[in-house]
């Protein structure tokens, strides 16, 4: 019999993250919703094309920490605002390592939240263009590391997931890689095809 995936992941995740952003940077949190089931999946958003930052990119729901709230409260509030996810629905298992976004000067803490079932989502008008659900096994199968030359002549190296519906890359690609890497060690049966 396989061990309980929630317990296995919880024991490997940070239960009390307290990152210190570099001077002048801000703290943010995202929720990496994982839907439990026969074919476990991850939930992503497609950011609206008119946004000033990361327009049209695939990301986990999240945003900047408000004064007086914990980082996990930030992740749950933002998921509720962006995709209509009831804050009580996910079982938050803990946090992955923080990821720094150099372009926007934000230190992002990704929390893993398990969902028993796939809920109906209500994307926020003007902020979220779409909600995407990808099987973890498919994401693991297409994962690749790249080194791209950008239009401005600089280079970007990181993890990329080209899926039908878009490409996960950037800070979200890093977070997804960390999640899949953790699952390869702790719950490999969740991501095997």
Radius of gyration: 16 Å
State the domain count.
1
What is the string of SSEs from the N terminus onward?
Answer: HEEEEHEEEEHEEEH
Into which percentage range does the β-strand content fall? 25-35%
Mean pLDDT comes to 91
The CATH superfamily name is Nucleoside Triphosphate Pyrophosphohydrolase
Largest sheet: 8 strands, mixed
Report the end-to-end length measured between terminal Cα atoms.
Answer: 19 Å
Shape summary: globular
CATH class category name: Alpha Beta
What are the salient characteristics of this protein?
34% strand, 23% helix, three-stranded antiparallel β-sheet, Nucleoside Triphosphate Pyrophosphohydrolase, 4 helices, 193 residues, eight-stranded mixed β-sheet, single chain, globular, alpha+beta, 11 strands
Polypeptide structure, described:
This protein is of the alpha+beta class and 193 residues long. The chain has a single domain, classed as Nucleoside Triphosphate Pyrophosphohydrolase (Alpha-Beta Complex). 23% of the residues lie in helices and 34% in strands. The chain has four helices and eleven strands. The chain has helices spanning 5-12, 71-83, 136-142, 170-186, and strands at residues 26-35, 41-47, 58-59, 62-64, 91-95, 99-101, 106-115, 128-135, 144-149, 155-163, 166-168. Strands 1, 2, 3, 4, 5, 6, 7 and 8 form an eight-stranded mixed sheet that branches. A hairpin with a 5-residue loop joins strand 1 (26-35) and strand 2 (41-47). The protein is globular, with a radius of gyration of 16 Å. It starts with a helix and ends in a 7-residue tail after the last helix. The model has no long low-confidence stretch (mean pLDDT 91).
